[in-house]
Specification:
alpha/beta; TIM Barrel; eight-stranded parallel barrel; 40% helix
């Protein structure tokens, strides 16, 4: 798949920490059927063997539906599997070096927290999208810094998509979209449901775009 983040808009599904790979694939597919435009594989509890096997399984699902799969943190895993891109945080490696390693045709996303200057630098060094957050109190990262929604208005000057993350729900997503976010990254609000309800929830998130 030729990766392109230029039209990234809408629901960005990020996987929960789940050991059951079969269930995880079903949940992710349900989110895609509901309109998720990008999927990030993130599992902070998995060991290396499980990371590889789950990423392979999810890549097959995403390829089937022609949806890009982004690997969180693990740059070498992205390269080894020929996934569609990688997302890195502040301690996950140098931005320019990561872009060189994955290749120009792959998507590089960078966490910028509440720091607009980091976003500017990230874009200059090759980031294809920038993420700000936590926008709201987050169950996944309860101690995360808070990012003001005005960052998404500022980010329009960067000419790459901006992704909102952190505590985003169906009740508050409208304010994030109104502020200018290109996409919303969602974990808990999306994947706390059964399979059928995940698709419905994804449709509801997608309706805001």
């Amino acid at each position: 798949m030729q990766s392109n983040s230029a039209n990234l808009r809408g629901l960005y599904a990020i996987t929960p920490d789940l050991a059951d790979t079969n269930l995880l694939c079903k949940m992710v597919e349900a989110s895609i059927l509901g309109g998720a435009r990008l999927v990030q594989y993130r599992n902070k509890l998995a060991k290396e063997a499980q990371l590889i096997s789950q990423a392979q399984a999810l890549l097959a699902v995403c390829r089937q539906h022609q949806i890009p799969l982004i690997i969180n943190d693990h740059v070498q895993l992205c390269v080894a599997l020929d996934a569609d891109g990688v997302h890195i945080g502040g301690e996950d490696g140098e931005i320019a070096a990561t872009k060189t390693l994955i290749g120009a045709d792959k998507i590089l996303g960078v966490s910028c927290y509440n720091d607009f200057s980091r976003a500017q630098t990230a874009v200059q060094l090759g980031a294809n999208y920038v993420a700000f957050g936590a926008c709201f109190p987050s169950g996944t990262k309860p101690n995360a810094v808070r990012a003001d929604l005005s960052l998404f208005t500022q980010a329009k000057t960067l000419n790459v998509p901006s992704v909102a993350i952190g505590g985003i729900t169906l009740e508050n997503v409208g304010s994030v979209v109104d502020a200018g976010a290109s996409a919303v990254a969602v974990i808990g609000e999306l994947f706390k449901r059964d399979i059928q309800a995940i698709t419905t929830c994804a449709q509801q998130f997608s309706s805001f775009f």
